[in-house]
User: Fold these one by one.
Assistant:
Number 1:
Amino acid sequence: MPTEITINVLWAALLGYAFGSIPFGLILAKLAGKGDIRQQGSGNIGATNVLRTGSKGLAAATLLLDLAKGLVPVLIAKELFWQDMGWTALFAVIGHCFPVWLGFKGGKGVATNAGVCFGLAWPLGAVYAVVWLGMLAITRISSLAGMSAVVAATIAAWLFGWPTFVKVLALIAVIVIFLHRENIKRLAAGTEPKVGSKG
């Protein structure tokens, strides 16, 4: 039994990482002739930086695909080894943030974690989406909206009585907020760029 559990955890983690580590922003930008997105704007491979190329359609496609690579593996894990799907959720975000194919330099996990939340339980996804989009509409600051959403999802999991999800989402929140440490500094200094700006 311990061996079976270990193997299931390994497969759950690999499933999440395999999906999460696909760098859709980089791929789409190159296919669209926008060059290496890592050499532009913030250097991030996520949708916010793709938007800085001037293509809203490309940014929207990146956002949806980054969300899907969090949602799809969690849904698969829910069918194959639901008791270990938290590992899939965690490693989907880790894969996005630290993809082996890009020297472990990826995105910041906000969109992928949205997909993860919808995969774990749709109410968590709903809370995540409402907070994320609401904060974005109010502040137009992508980093602030994303960090607010990851914290809100963790709190929601606790309020809804899903302790296992609380642990997973809390770990993800730590990763996401850590990767936003430069954004936090700019927020404190009042220099964080807003969505649509070129900075």
Number 2:
Amino acid sequence: MQTKFGKLFDATELNELRKKFKYVDAQANGKKRVFFDNAGGSLRLIDAEKRFHAIDLHPDASEHLNTLALELLDIENKGREDIRTLFNAKHGAIATGYTASQLMMEAVRIVSENVKGTNVVTTCLEHPSSFDAMSMYAEKYGRELRVAQANPLTGGIDTEEVVSLIDKDTAIVSVMAASNISGHIMDIAAIAKQAKAINPDIIVISDAVQHAPHGTIDPENDGIDIMNFAPYKFFGIRGFALMYVSDRVKNWPHHRLLGSPSDNWEIGSPGTANFAAMSSIVDYVCGLGKKAAVQDADRRQLFETGMKRIADHERALLELMLEGTETAPGLRHIPGINVKMDDPDLNKRDLIIGIEFANMDAVKAREELEKHGVVAFERMGNSIYSARMLEQFNSPGVVRMSPLHVNTPEEITFFLNVCAEVAAL
């Protein structure tokens, strides 16, 4: 089905895709539910979990030379290649860590120690791992912290707002790829290009944790020096994180064993199982791409095509959520519901929606939704993760819905009917 902004997977293919994920329509105890909290940790790809556990059972170390150890090294290196495919990284280095927040804060520290300039620029919508690190190290090194404000109507950061804060003495600019509250996609390529026209030495950082599962990321093409993402939000495993580091930054002093190359950003014994799981994720997306890609497409082209199909389906779902289905009015048309940060151009949005209920706060609304079989999450003004963002949108709190590309139009209809019931309580 083609909509104004997207194209749904056909029912047969969508049913097959749902079989590849765990707990799509029910939790472990068999209780039925619609899971719309993928922004907090997505549905798990079964093959990624299986490969992780199969590999992780081996005691052998991929750094050793026995036969199985060498086989594990091959699996690990294949995972490294696939991670580069995901980033489209032909150059630079790949850093690994426990969480994406850990990697981001470490990257901001390292960059702050090595750049020249009197000010740094970030935005009010950044995740605390970026915003707080930028604040801490701006203070430590005596730099002015400049904060770009959000567009209250679209829920995004306008390019002009960021660029207006940059001058020849700006050392760092940090702008996330997409908001984890509004879903708005920032034009990080335009920001990077204009920033470097003002100061060619500026370092550009982008948090892609929220955007990576919904669209392609391409830091080298977009002029980004640091970009991170978290596999657990991309169908994968918790406890593992990845970050691209550009050629301009990769050899700067950072934690590493001193006998290793200066561009080595992996510390300690690698977890081969994590790399195997990443290969499963890239395999899955490339499999989607094979059904629409040109003949003889390479792995990155297959990946890009697969991600485009994911984005097309998700934009169509977003359109249905906002405007409604044949049997249910959309969120924009349900009395007692206010859609916040509602940019009408869905091409600029990932599949995330924040709404307010007139008859209850976001905590109570989330509880009521779950009683009716919908799992979402509240973003509240008293949270360190949300306060700074919600201030921009004059909201005490929103219920955030974050479906995934394996959700169906029927689930959207169910969700909309539940919202109407809750709004009428």
